[in-house]
């Protein structure tokens, strides 16, 4: 831990500063962007909209299996989108079709894009769609429009990405602070800064502990860089102990490097209330561990000056 003048306004000891960190952890970073990424939803739907509209032909058809066979023969591209109608991204699916015997029987259904399909392949495709109940829904008009249905399905799938979205939002929040300070101090910064990116932009060779390393942010200060990693944890768990340890290792790796001015770990979230001990250890062992509250108090500006 490096002493900063802004710390003296908070408390008169390291323990006091750490208590301030814990007491001021944000309980959430959920902006409106947390709930759904509409651009991603419509990007995925627009890519297959033509095929989805072709499948709309089947809605309300009495002899739906016969009509489906005709549709596949005339427009084989519709086959490729069938798995996603039940939220499957893979193009082949294995199904347990019979478990009433000594040996369970499995069947693999393929939906790979082809210019045409054999009679057997078409029968299997129709069998799958019938087995999952899709044909019944279309025949009885329980799905009115497959494009609209797909939008709803992608929204549902999108909710699974909320865990990762929290990390993205923390990066966006941190970016706002960094941009503000860099504009004030006349500094340049990079997002998702790889070694190659920093070399190309600034001609500064930056160390990486692994070839895939991309620092969330890099700020050019003179002929050196300030490297920043950021994350947010709403919930606790054993993972946080290893997370804290990783940043001690990264700090120790970067500290002796000539081209690195400083390494800053910016983290936040009430999840750290369940892992105070490893966070306290990291706070003591690395130069700069900040929360968004400390940044608002001037900690980042002080390091960048």
UniProtKB/TrEMBL annotation:
Pfam families: DpnII
Gene Ontology BP terms: DNA restriction-modification system
All residue ranges annotated as the Restriction endonuclease type II DpnII-like domain in the record: 18-301
Keywords associated with the record: Endonuclease, Hydrolase, Nuclease, Restriction system
Molecular-function annotations in GO: DNA binding; type II site-specific deoxyribonuclease activity
Presence of keyword GTP-binding: no
Family assignment from sequence similarity: Belongs to the DpnII type II restriction endonuclease family.
Function: A P subtype restriction enzyme that recognizes the double-stranded unmethylated sequence 5'-GATC-3'.
Name of this protein: Type-2 restriction enzyme
Species this chain originates from: Halanaerobium congolense
């Amino acid at each position: 831990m490096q002493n900063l003048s802004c710390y003296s306004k908070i408390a008169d000891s390291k323990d006091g500063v750490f208590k301030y960190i814990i007491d001021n952890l944000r309980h959430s970073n959920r902006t409106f962007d947390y709930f759904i990424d509409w651009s991603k939803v419509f990007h995925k739907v627009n890519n297959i909209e033509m095929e989805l509209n072709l499948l709309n032909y089947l809605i309300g058809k009495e002899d739906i299996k016969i009509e489906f066979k005709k549709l596949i023969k005339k427009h084989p591209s519709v086959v490729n989108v069938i798995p996603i109608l039940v939220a499957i991204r893979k193009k082949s699916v294995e199904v347990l079709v019979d478990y009433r015997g000594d040996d369970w029987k499995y069947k693999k259904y393929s939906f790979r894009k082809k210019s045409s399909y054999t009679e057997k392949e078409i029968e299997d495709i129709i069998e799958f769609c019938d087995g999952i109940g899709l044909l019944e829904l279309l025949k009885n008009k329980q799905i009115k429009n497959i494009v609209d249905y797909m939008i709803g399905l992608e929204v549902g799938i999108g909710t699974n990405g909320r865990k990762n979205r929290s990390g993205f939002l923390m990066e966006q929040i941190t970016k706002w602070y960094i941009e503000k300070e860099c504009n004030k101090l006349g500094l340049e910064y990079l997002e998702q800064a790889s070694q190659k990116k920093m070399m190309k932009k600034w001609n500064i060779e930056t160390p990486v502990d692994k070839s895939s390393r991309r620092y969330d942010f890099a700020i050019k200060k003179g002929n050196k860089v300030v490297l920043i990693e950021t994350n947010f944890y709403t919930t606790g768990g054993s993972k946080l102990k290893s997370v804290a340890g990783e940043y001690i290792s990264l700090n120790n790796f970067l500290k002796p490097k000539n081209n690195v001015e400083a390494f800053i770990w910016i983290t936040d979230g009430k999840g750290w209330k369940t892992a105070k001990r490893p966070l306290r250890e990291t706070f003591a062992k690395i130069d700069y561990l900040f929360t968004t509250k400390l940044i608002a108090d001037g900690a980042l500006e002080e390091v960048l000056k």
